[in-house]
């Protein structure tokens, strides 16, 4: 007999409204949205959500759990990474299978799925593409086969020579080979500008962590985005620009979208880019903030409250390097780049985009807080839509998986490293006060987190085959 669960008394965040309602869960899926106070079905377990906001579980479309770059490896695994995610209200991650040199897509996918086996939440995968056949027909056949295996998205890089770097010819070839029902995610930084800036700093003996931001200037990101968008337009390819770290980057993407002549284009940003700026590189713990692209000067920063209508997602780009790994070398050129973020992303985005924005608005500032349905769009629905998981994931509608985040907005919580469940040993958000806490998390109707206790089991997570991309 299927288990019945009633989530009672909360404010339920639906696609276009917030409603005082109860959610009835039957087995693994949402069975009904009920008016408050309707009779409890016989035998139902009741979860009291009074005073809480009931969101769809977060769908993070950009994570790096158990990452192996060929140079660095994070010290986590899929059990650690997905447990960390659950504590943050994340019920689905979309990570990456890496096609290392000499591998077929099939080999890369099978190797990554074996690593994912201990996952405690559901997961999808993108493919990091490093090699494609030169013949356009054969290249398209490879990509179509990948799509048919449930991976409708690929990842390309305009930097990181020689590991992942794709020059303009490789980008254009890949875009031309892509079927129209696939989506290309692009890491955009002009490799020549980054290489030159880095070389000049090294020549001057300026290799400490304080110089990391100067080695990867914001102009490198903006230029690469403009170039990628042009090549995608030439080839008619749909693209998704990852981790936009500057306001101008988002403006360039918005202009392309508004032109009406560009193929579909989407963009994400991450909490680090609207919470933190490059002054952190002058701090004693600058190694905590080494990532690519780097934190930006205030004048270049992404303002979430200005750009949220343009965004398709708020992701994390989560990388769980340990402090020992971060501190092994003191040169920014040798320090692994990436920050832990899965456990803090929802609280940070809610605090910045909703709670603090309302306070600023009440104080007379001309800001527009993010409506709760739009927050759910950015952190759940649109990532699920773009990567072929909607409406199974990303929404609280009858028939959808019962992936549910119950968020208590009342307490103020100070983020501390000792309270985190990563193995990093630090958090880049140390000491930041957020409004609210993740109280209860359900994945397919099963309670994974409740009041700080974890109840999941390794291996319960399932691989999600993404449907082909549809604009």
CATH architecture term of the largest domain = Alpha-Beta Barrel
How is the main sheet built?
8 strands, parallel
Overall pLDDT level = 97
Low-confidence stretches: none
Q: Mind telling me the C-alpha Rg?
A: 22 Å
**How much helix, percentage-wise, in residues?**
25-40%
Our count of helices gives: 13
> Care to count the β-strands?
21
**CA-CA gap between termini:** 39 Å
Task: Label the structural class.
Answer: alpha/beta
- In percent, how much strand structure appears in the residues? 15-25%
Quickly describe the structure.
By secondary structure, this protein is α/β, with parallel strands linked by helices. The protein has helices at residues 78-87, 105-116, 136-148, 168-177, 191-203, 212-215, 218-235, 247-258, 271-275, 304-307, 323-327, 345-362, 372-386; strands at residues 4-8, 11-13, 18-20, 22-26, 29-34, 45-48, 53-56, 58-60, 63-64, 90-98, 122-128, 153-157, 183-187, 239-241, 265-269, 313-314, 318-319, 404-414, 433-443, 446-450, 453-454. The protein has two domains: 4-55 and 398-454, Roll (Urease, subunit C, domain 1), CATH 2.30.40.10; 57-386, TIM Barrel.
